[in-house]
Specification:
The protein has helices at 15-24, 42-46, 48-65, 81-103, 152-158, 165-168, 185-196, 216-229, 324-340, 369-374, 390-394, 423-435, 440-444, 454-469, and strands at 3-11, 31-35, 111-113, 115-120, 123-128, 131-142, 146-148, 162-163, 177-181, 200-204, 232-233, 237-244, 247-254, 257-263, 265-268, 272-274, 311-313, 353-356, 361-366, 379-385, 401-407, 413-420. It is α/β, with parallel strands linked by helices. Helix 1 runs parallel beside helix 9 (324-340). The termini are far apart.
């Protein structure tokens, strides 16, 4: 078997792997990235970009149907599912093409198509289209990504009538009906979009919450909002599902009783599984307690390093924050430290920021309500409702609320959660302010144009300042307030 020797071997050529390659190359030219394909990153192929293309079509259909609110009647609205999906696929392929163009300079010297598995602490066995290859390296970056979680029993019962988000973006036509199981980010976005495109949808949440909000007031508001906009059932448990020809016969139970309905497909959006189960981690010689309950190696998020080993981990496989910008950051950190090893250096992480492109949108910036409460941080909360906020009413998107959190002692902004209009933009403003260490007074010193949705943020900041001014520092401020 031929052998190749490199300084750094990277398993995976997605967002994290590509970022790791660029960072490691700053220290050594002997870097090899290994991926079985297809190449093109999860975000471009089956994640961020195709889902937003579907959501954009849904927003256009929704705007046309509700134009009457502004005194504009749009007649004969029809959703052409074939044309919708043709645009989704063609633009998706265009985005994938950009990624592939960026990868062209890597071939063949630094990019190897193949499936890699550890056979020793410093050795990989790689099955390539041209045969097996042994790769020896001084250090490794594991960036193998993740895949949708699919219960084996569901797959056995339903066959191709059971789909995941990856399958949606290869449709050539919109189906008539879909049951979406899971009300996290992926399930909520896809259910919301398909419903607005005229697909009969039922969103089944296994728990009581909808989306990622942790602030109990906002989480409850999210439930009320989405229950008016979507056929939604929470705390749903299945006691029977089977395939019936080209349909899914689904029975479920909720606290309100039992229901039965037929759908063209069941879309499983119940989480993602890190791709670590077939890469030979057992051959790395890691301590018995090196893996968490999901089998993912424990690692330092500031370095990407697994224990005190020569192996680093980054991206969705790390099972930490499955977001493109986080994967790229983690890849850079892991790749840089693999390249400079053994001079491993901790690196600062950016302010957390997450957005759900539902309607209304959801965002979390900085530390969440749950994180602050669990850490027993003394913080105050500023509130604003968008129901009567000026610009929100002008554009007919006056729903939801924003909560902003600040430290009772330093008055520094700590985090925010929101469901409402333009959350993707307000989230960035807040994440930047938090990252710069701004206080509530610093934020209020900035300009706010009129009339804009950002004036709602100013209202929340003013309420936050009142809450802080109403008590001596750290007195009367309790976790969870």
């Amino acid at each position: 078997m031929p052998t190749r020797q490199v300084d750094v071997a990277i398993l995976g050529a997605g967002s994290a792997g590509l970022s790791a390659w660029r960072a490691a190359r700053q220290h050594t030219p002997q870097v090899l990235m290994i991926d079985p394909g297809p190449w093109g990153t999860t975000c471009a192929r089956v994640g961020c970009m195709p889902s937003k293309l579907l959501i954009a079509a849904a927003e256009a259909a929704h705007a046309a149907r509700h134009a009457h609110r502004f005194g504009i009647d749009v007649q004969g609205i029809q959703v052409d599912g074939a044309r919708v999906m043709d645009r989704v696929r063609s633009e998706r392929d265009r985005f994938v093409g950009f990624v592939l163009e960026d990868m062209q300079p890597l071939e063949p010297g630094h990019l190897l198509r193949g499936r890699a598995r550890f056979t020793g602490p410093n050795e990989l066995h790689v099955d390539t289209p041209d045969g097996a290859l042994r790769v020896r390296a001084g250090r490794f970056v594991i960036a193998t990504g993740s895949r949708p979680e699919v219960p084996a029993a569901w797959r056995t019962a339903l066959g191709e009538r059971l789909i995941v988000n990856d399958d949606v973006f290869d449709w050539t036509e919109l189906p008539r009906s879909v049951a979406v199981v899971g009300a996290g980010v992926i399930g909520l976005e896809l259910a919301n979009a398909l419903h607005r495109l005229g697909v009969r949808v039922r969103l089944l949440a296994r728990g009581s919450r909808i989306g990622p909000l942790t602030d109990p007031v906002l989480a409850a508001q999210a439930v009320r909002i989405f229950e008016t906009q979507l056929p939604l059932q929470r705390e749903a448990t299945f006691f029977h599902l089977q395939r019936d020809g080209d349909a899914v016969d689904l029975h479920w139970r909720t606290p309100q009783g039992e229901e039965r309905e037929r759908f063209d497909f069941l879309l499983a959006a119940i989480g993602r599984r890190p791709n670590i189960d077939d890469i030979g981690l057992e051959h790395l010689g890691l301590p018995a307690d090196a893996l968490d309950d999901d089998g993912v190696p424990r690692h330092d998020p500031a370095t990407g390093r697994i224990g005190d080993s020569h192996v680093f981990i980054a991206g969705d496989v790390a099972d930490d924050k499955p977001l493109l910008h986080e994967a790229a950051d983690e890849g850079h950190i892991a790749g840089d430290n693999a390249g400079r090893w053994p001079d491993v250096q901790p690196q600062p992480r950016r302010t957390p920021l997450a957005v759900v492109f539902s309607e209304p949108q959801i965002m979390l910036a900085g530390r969440s309500h749950r994180e602050l409460s669990d850490a027993r941080v003394l913080f105050a909360t500023g509130h604003v409702s968008f129901e009567n906020q000026g610009r929100s009413r002008v554009i007919g998107r006056n729903v939801g609320a924003l909560h902003v959190y600040a430290d009772c002692g330093t008055r520094r902004l700590l985090g925010a959660e929101m469901i409402g209009p333009a959350a993707e933009h307000l989230g960035h403003l807040l994440a930047w302010s938090i990252g710069h260490g701004a206080t509530v007074d610093d934020a209020l010193a900035q300009p706010f144009y009129h009339p804009v949705i950002e004036e709602g943020l100013r209202t929340a900041l003013r309420e936050l300042r009142k809450a802080l001014d109403a008590r001596p520092p750290c007195e009367g401020c309790t976790p969870g307030e």
